[in-house]
Amino acid sequence: MLLLIDVGNTNIVFGVYKEDKLIYDWRIATDKNKTSDEYGLLFEQIFKYHGICPKDVEDVIISSVVPTLMYTLSAMSIKYFNKEPLVVGPGIKTGMNIKYDNPKEVGADRIVNAVAAYEKYGGPIIIVDFGTAITFCVVSKEGDYLGGTIAPGIKISSEALFQRTAKLPKVELIKPDTVIAKNTVNSIQSGLIYGYVGLVDYIIEKIIEEMKDRGNIKAVIGTGGFANLIATESKYINKVEKLLTLEGLNIIYKRNK
Known about the structure:
Layout: E1 2-7, E2 11-18, E3 21-29, H1 36-49, E4 59-64, H2 67-81, E5 86-87, E6 97-98, H3 108-121, E7 125-130, E8 133-139, E9 144-152, H4 154-164, H5 184-210, E10 219-223, H6 227-231, E11 239-240, H7 244-256
Parallel strand pairs: 1-4, 4-5, 6-9, 7-10, 10-11
Antiparallel strand pairs: 1-2, 2-3, 7-8, 8-9
Helix pairs in contact: 1-2, 3-7
């Protein structure tokens, strides 16, 4: 089995592939203060609950946008799975040409998503990842990573609104029935959900406009924790792939091993 771990600012998503098929996937909160032993015991408990033996893990691959946790999880992999992990970063073979001014600046999750999306749908393609930040990534027809856009995530905006105002409450991030709301909670939900739909669709429109001489966009893919929330209202997102990052990690692993 292959253990795949993607570390985000809010959540760690991980799963196991067996014979090139994802058999389990999980999501836990990212905690920068946890030690390698704490993560190791947590992984062991989750594995045990699902009847998986840690000794069956033949290899580990990790991508992370939280540098402080990279050493922690690498140490966890060595101690609890007896495997030196493959880490997505400079020098790893992705099969994708990165057309960024400084390729080292591109988050590992953005590259992994781009690899999986291009493998699945071809190009040109747009990937929108709804995580702590919302990232827009563009891959050309030839499979080059062209760059993209980064915006604050919907949860960040929700928390900022609560923290920076005296009377506005923290709300659940769900879509209200109408844009014109009749109470404060629904008003905030309307502004957040429909406001972000507008943000997402406008940026996608601008990307499509800039890409018009490079071929028709084959797909606009939404991924990440809040993908379904926005995609149902978006004019342009036509695919939702919640586990795109794990698929990309599996592809990159095969290209390196």
